[in-house]
Amino acid sequence: SRWCLITSHKLYSSVYDPNEKTFEKLLIANRGEIACRVIKTCKKMGIKTVAIHSDVDANAVHVKMADESVCVGPAPTSKSYLNMDAIMEVIRKTGAQAVSLNVSICCSFLSSLSLQTSEGVTFIGPDTHAIQAMGDKIESKLLAKNAKVNTIPGFDGVVKDADEAVRIAREIGYPVMIKASAGGGGKGMRIAWDDEETREGFRFSSQEAASSFGDDRLLIEKFIDNPRHIEIQVLADKHGNALWLNERECSIQRRNQKVVEEAPSTFLDPETRRAMGEQAVALAKAVKYSSAGTVEFLVDSSKNFYFLEMNTRLQVEHPVTECITGLDLVQEMIRVAKGYPLRHKQADIPINGWAVECRVYAEDPYKSFGLPSIGKLSQYQEPLHVPSVRVDSGIQQGSDISIYYDPMISKLITYGSNRAEALKRMEEALDNYVIRGVAHNISLLREVIVHPRFVQGDISTKFLPEVYPDGFKGHKLTDLERRELLATAVSLYVAEQLRSQQFLGTPRIPIAKSKRSSWELSVRLGDGIYPVAVSKDGSSFSVEVDGMKLNVTSEWNLASPLLSVTIDGTQRTIQRISRNASGETSIQFLGTVYKLQILTKVAAELSKYMPEKAAEDTSSILRSPMPGTVVAVSVKPGDMVSEGQEICVIEAMKMQNSMIAAKTGKV
After folding, report:
1. How confident is the model over 443-469, as pLDDT tens digits?
2. How much is the mean pLDDT over the chain?
3. How far is CA 314 from CA 1, 38, 151, 567, in A?
4. pTM (2 decimals)?
5. 47 Cβ partners below 8 Å, 6+ apart?
6. What is the pLDDT of residues 604-615, one digit of tens each?
């Protein structure tokens, strides 16, 4: 069946014909979740795989999954995953017949793909002409115009320097978008609203572009304010056939990088969907495209759409398309590369159900909607026990999240017969996702998918700054939710106290008083202190908070990272993140981690005598909000600096960030 089948790890189905010969061995020049994704399909198709890796990725999941693996260099991508000479040598040594590339491909690598003819190696993807044409945003825009595809007004040439950037921006009219010609993934991209921001944007965008893509050329075009970002998945073969596989809604973004995607879009009607699909196919045919690719559009409130760019690779968000169409896009790419024609016609492509994807990142969502976090995953458990859940990941418990690569932990996908069902399953999946050791963005993802505007489909690329103008602060508890959290926390506290009094497996003569059945406690949550009374009845607790009684029931499996609790008939899944002997505990409730302190009534009365630790004075310190590499220092000891002046530039996960002085002073 082509329809979505539910299994433990995936939400797509396709027919694998053992008699349809493709390749015996395929090299995957990538890492992380996308490398693991390709390996899974190769195993089903009977294709042996070769993984490449950097020295720090020697124990990565994709290395363990592959049949063979070869180290191609040190951690920086330019010296390993983009080391063209080393990769070509691996292809020769291992005898790989095909190579799958989903990293940012530079032209020097494409020239190396002359091996396709000289040594019989096939590239899984479009030919070099299509990649070069669509990978260059300037050329792709001109090709799109010639193919009668709607395009954004702007300057169609290469911007030489900051002065020219300012002149062009004034001619187009602010605001403008400055972006790398060879860019993608939000890197090398800046929005400028005036001349000063244009100069700064030119500098940072060109530096990021050179670092990420080996190409510092920039273009400038009109910035369409408050649009939707909707893309069309295309699939084409070498025989002139091309299909559009419906759309993906990708408007929830931070720093021009997607956070939540879904398919289909709530916004498109059948006519607009068809028009966008037909223009996407026209562009693919214009460049003789042959593989899976994505044509991205900006769509305004009147459903006018404009070509943004074409990505000549398998996109991060491809699973939602697989869910609603039942196609395995990796399999289709391999078949096309081997020369087989497409098996489907446009009329065969369905929209079956609804799929939502959340990008789970090792990021602190309370800092600019997500600044990178590094560390070791001390505990990791994917929510695969939740029905209709697919998780595409390239990490496991014990994996390291480093400064060298994208901080993505996984892609969490849920599927339902309709949007409401898919969103409800996503809510449950996020609550059941266990991640310890690094900061993560589960709280932000959960708040987005339950927000009334998102549920109604009222979204744009400005959703996050509009909904959270002062930054993301976590879930704001209602009075009922606050009482539920307090009741759950004290019930968990008492359950632990009772367990600590038990002697298991050893008969002892009781010398202590009989077990208590009621407790008077004091709980600090935020700026509030709440008296709470608890009484036990079997496995349930009756908790009185704010003069109201709540009944809390659970199996109280205190060894599990997940705890299912029923509060007055409402089921909640919570996670206790930490606790200590002074009564402080952290509980993940409704996606957000809350810090509480639970004390007995006597201890609470005595706590006023405990001195509080003075907060550190950081006004004279410039502290980076994220781990990264110092790529530029703009001052020297003895310099006088003013508030807001740039001190240095930090590069983290290929994004450059200017660190500025918080006050006037001497370095």
Report:
1. 999 999 999 999 999 999 999 999 999
2. 89
3. 23, 10, 23, 44
4. 0.85
5. 22, 23, 24, 25, 26, 334
6. 999 888 888 888
Structure tokens belonging to residue 637: 């000891």
What integer pLDDT is reported at residue 109 of this predicted model?
Answer: 54
Q: How far apart are CA 389 and CA 510, in angstroms?
A: 49
Burial 172-202 (b: 16+ CB within 10 A, else e): beebbbbbbbbbbbbbbbbbbeebebbbbbb
Q: In what order do the strands lie in the sheet with 629-633?
A: 629-633, 646-652, 655-660
pLDDT of 241 above 80: yes
The full set of domains in the chain, from first to last, is 25-124 (3.40.50.20), 127-152+227-352 (3.30.470.20), 154-222 (3.30.1490.20), 353-466 (3.30.470.20), 479-500+517-608 (3.30.700.30), 629-666 (2.40.50.100)
The per-residue pLDDT for range 404-432, each reduced to its tens digit, is 888 899 999 999 999 999 999 999 999 99
| pLDDT confidence bin for 1, thresholds 50/70/90 | very low
Q: pLDDT band for position 591 (50/70/90)?
A: very high
**Residues with a known catalytic role:** 309
The secondary structure element, H or E, covering residue 641 is strand 640-641
Question: Is residue 268 within 8 Å of 228, Cβ to Cβ?
Answer: no
Tokens of 644: 């807001």
Phi first, then psi: give them for residue 267, nearest 5 degrees: -90, -30
CA–CA dist 349, 398 (Å, integer): 41
Query: For the segment 307-357, what is each residue's pLDDT rounded down to a tens digit?
Result: 999 998 899 999 999 999 999 999 999 999 999 999 999 999 999 999 999
Pairing mode of beta strands 187-192, 218-222 = unpaired
In this predicted model, which residue has the larger pLDDT, 223 or 636?
636
* Strand-pair category, 122-124 with 98-101: parallel
Nearest one of 656, 159, 185, 160 to 176, comparing CA atoms: 159
Question: What phi, psi does 428 have (nearest 5°)?
Answer: -65, -40
How confident is residue 383, by pLDDT bands cut at 50, 70 and 90? very high
Query: Residue 540: CB partners within 8 Å, gap ≥ 6?
Result: 551, 552, 553
Non-local CB neighbours of 67 within 8 Å, separated by 6+ positions:
25, 48, 49, 50
Q: Residue 582: what residue type?
A: S
Strands 154-155, 68-73: pairing is: unpaired
What DSSP state is assigned to residue 609?
G
User: Are the C-beta atoms of 326 and 231 separated by less than 8 Å?
Assistant: no
